[in-house]
Specification:
Number of helices: 10
Oligomer: single chain
Number of domains: 1
Order of helices and strands: HHHHEEHHHHEHH
Structural class: mainly alpha
Bound molecules: heme C
Strand order of the largest sheet: 1-2-3
Low-confidence stretches: 1-20
Length: 218
């Protein structure tokens, strides 16, 4: 396991939490969220009830900053190569007008709200799907997630998880240059040759309490 973790540290752009971005202002973020009507879909506090809409409450600050920045610019290129692509017409439009400081404030607001996930879960009875150990090195789940820019998946909306997993899976196969979500890490998210059942992975993370036992919100 140690070598897997070392490989992931070298291969990904993950940073320990202590190196996270300068923090925005939660009260300003709350005002901006009201002003822009984000609550219509995500609920005022990011607890999002409608199916298919991601929960934002308690999500990592660094990840929220990245996600909104990706959605704002749609594509990030380096040496003429696309390293990030995130196409979603509604969210591209919502994020387009946000300034960098506003993104930091909104991320500060949502990340400091308590996360909302299933309660009274008997974690001992949750069956781990095949291949999930690797996912948990980066995302946490039964274990904690120490990476500042890697999202928590535990307790996330199931339909949202499944939709994003399908996008990232398609991206990892490199079959289509025009995938809606491209991230250079998707290639190492899934081990080659391993059978993944994306529905089972979405079921698993959605069923977990949003923090592993005894772990707070860093
Ligand atoms: C009309 C509904 C709607 C509104 C309004 C809306 N969102 Fe979203 N938001 C979505 C959907 C749907 C997604 C999932 C996008 C995808 O699949 O890539 C999303 C994704 C996101 C994400 C990425 C979450 C993740 O886990 O990657 C963030 C952050 C976000 N929205 C913040 C906001 C903010 C801030 C506002 C207001 C400025 C806002 N949204 C307004 C529907 C909406
Ligand atoms: C090397 C670390 C790493 C591994 C291993 C990994 N991921 Fe990810 N994953 C990430 C990062 C970083 C992101 C955010 C990408 C971005 O910024 O768009 C992400 C994004 C996601 C998302 C979208 C979350 C959201 O809120 O939009 C899902 C779903 C996901 N991963 C599922 C998985 C599953 C399931 C596995 C195991 C099969 C896995 N990941 C393995 C690092 C990893």
């Amino acid at each position: 396991m140690k070598s897997v973790i070392l490989f992931l540290i070298l291969a990904c752009s993950c940073f320990p939490v202590s190196l996270a971005w300068a923090f925005g202002s939660p009260p300003k973020g709350r005002a901006l969220v009201n002003e822009h009507g984000c609550g219509a879909c995500h609920a005022w506090d990011g607890s999002a009830r409608p199916e298919g809409i991601p929960k934002l409450a308690g999500q990592k600050y660094g990840y929220l900053v990245r996600a909104l920045t990706h959605l704002k610019f749609k594509e990030v290129t380096s040496d003429q190569e696309t390293v990030i692509r995130r196409i979603h017409p509604i969210m591209n439009e919502m994020a387009r007008s946000l300034k960098t400081t506003e993104i930091a404030d909104i991320a500060a607001f949502y990340s400091t709200r308590a996360c909302i996930g299933p309660v009274d879960v008997d974690v001992a009875n949750i069956v781990q799907p095949q291949g999930v150990e690797k996912c948990e090195v980066c995302h946490g789940g039964m274990r904690s997630n120490p990476w500042a820019d890697t999202p928590y998946l535990a307790g996330q909306d199931r339909a949202y998880l499944l939709a994003e997993l399908r996008r990232l899976w398609e991206d990892s196969k490199g079959q289509d240059d025009e995938v809606e979500r491209h991230h250079r890490l998707s290639e190492i998210m899934f081990d080659e040759g391993k059978q993944y059942k994306l529905e089972d992975l979405a079921d698993y993370f959605a069923a977990l309490p949003c923090r592993p036992p005894n772990v707070g919100n860093p």
